[in-house]
Design brief:
By secondary structure, chain A is an alpha/beta fold. Chain A is built from ten helices and 18 strands. The first copy, chain A, folds into two domains: 248 residues, Ribonuclease Z/Hydroxyacylglutathione hydrolase-like (Metallo-beta-lactamase, Chain A, 4-Layer Sandwich), CATH 3.60.15; 41 residues, no CATH class. A seven-stranded mixed beta sheet of chain A has the order 6-5-4-3-2-1-18. In chain A, strands 7-8-9-14-15-16-17 form a seven-stranded mixed beta sheet.
Chain lengths: 301, 301
């Protein structure tokens, strides 16, 4: 399972029962929380997200609609007796904000909290199964996007051929990781002759808040699903530019130029009560576009 | 109109669609917000509270379930173009928390924000129509309760008697404020002979978070409505004591000893899915008790 569940799809001021930005990416039994606007802990309960499975939280920037819910989530995790460690990645000033609020409440968290300041683009964390990178976007204050990638999966054994070449089971793991096999006689059986490639690794790109910026294209090239903000419809291109946000058409152009498989759009301005026009406009440029709707989980790859 | 609308009635961790503490007191066209847990701005929209009428916000203490929604509310007020001044009363450290979060977002509020640190008991603000006092409660960290009082209303003119004593209209305002009338002959007509008292001024007492503390009785003596926390039912008296909270019976005893007209109870622990037992237990001690239910406005006096 690799998917993203939308907990909030609205921009700054909550409206029409839409919430500020928060998303949970599920990769097998690992949950990644991206951004944490006010009310995220309530949305987590509402959509029955297993908060104990969240070990990594990524905060794109310090506009309130992307992080005001973080301190409440952390505090509640503590009150609920969490013991597992939690990693938070965000702009450097975020650590002081968290620590100050814990201090004045005389709160000592019962779990280890590791803060990782975002200062440069690149790898943030990885395991044998995934990696997470960050890249900077163009917003009014420092802002970061994230790419969560599955690691390349081991090759699959072609059992029929193994039998034909009489390769012992003890070598299977080496073959999966791509090694050739040397027979007793010193002959080499190439890996490709006895294994088949697994599915291509899937990936999710989250572009945070940003004005139209072709610098992003390289960072999210070919991802399975790209989330790009679309605060405004295309008739407000100038307003988008002035406020360091993007329109439907701009998001779709990035998706197209980056050659992604699917585009997910969100961060809708509170001025829009309905969202259909966002989909229509984006699809005129990039057909495989979906609206990020709260509560829905979008499959990645 | 004098009443209190409950926006959140739950303790620390939100549960069962109950929200953390927040209440709006309406006194004619003046709204006072007391505490502002996470999600308060959404509750304000949900219950159609006119946020532009809020000029005073009182924060009892710096546990998150009483203030994590404040920065979001302030920020949204700014984004919505508020220009009127806003007064915030809270523990001194709150100002730094607000300013830090505005600074990292590079936010300049379009309205004047006046912060008033709570440091000693007494009068916080007053107008010709109301006064607000604070008093300290016994909690794990410094914590404040509030009393909002209507000012005593002017006496009413008894028109029939004014005619009988031939008192000119120019003296009416002086009579209303309690002055006697001296006739041309030097005779004194006592105020009580020509005016009748108006209704007694009404008042609302908010006890914040507190363990059972008889020191509170004097502060809220005779208020029209007393809000007192009841985090636990009476079988958890020891837990309440340890965690600086109160039980149903303790809240009702304070109400009884303070001779208040009505008791409103809230701040229910997340361990309770239903609330009926809270009412039953409190009423055994103090009959005129109501549960603080979200969205309901309770008349004061």
């Amino acid at each position: 399972m690799f998917g993203v569940t939308i907990l909030g799809n609205n921009s700054a001021v909550p409206a029409y029962d839409r919430h500020p930005t928060a998303q949970v990416v599920t990769l097998n039994d690992q949950l990644f929380l991206i951004d944490c606007g006010e009310g995220t802990q309530m949305q987590i309960s509402r959509y029955r997200i297993r908060r104990s499975k969240i070990h990594h939280i990524f905060i794109s920037h310090l506009h309130g609609d992307h992080y005001f819910g973080l301190i409440g989530l952390i505090t509640s995790m503590g009150l609920l007796g969490r013991e597992q460690e939690l990693h938070i990645y965000g702009p450097p000033e975020l650590e002081g904000i968290i620590q100050l609020q814990l201090k004045v409440a005389d709160t000592r968290l019962p779990f280890p909290l590791h803060f990782h300041p975002l200062t440069e683009e690149g790898l943030l964390t990885e395991s044998p199964r995934f990696s997470v990178e960050c890249f900077s976007t163009k917003h009014r204050i420092p802002c970061w996007g994230f790419v969560i990638r599955e690691k390349r999966k081991p090759r699959k054994i072609d059992k029929e051929k193994l039998l034909r070449y009489e390769i012992p089971a003890a070598y299977y793991e080496q073959l999966k990781s791509g090694a050739d096999y040397e027979t007793k006689d010193g002959n080499i059986i190439p890996n490709e002759a006895v294994t088949i490639p697994n599915k291509a690794p899937r990936s999710y790109g989250f572009c945070a808040d940003t004005k139209y910026d072709e610098g992003i294209i390289e960072k999210v090239k070919g991802v399975s699903v790209l989330y790009h903000e679309t605060t405004y419809l295309k008739d407000l291109t100038e307003r988008a530019e002035n406020r360091f946000h993007s329109t439907t058409v701009q998001a779709a152009m990035i998706a197209q130029k980056a050659g992604v498989e699917k585009l997910l759009i969100g961060h809708f301005s509170s001025k829009y009560e309905t969202l259909d026009a966002f989909r229509t406009e984006a699809r005129e440029v990039f057909e495989n576009t979906e609206l990020a709707i709260e509560g829905v989980t979008y499959k990645i790859g």
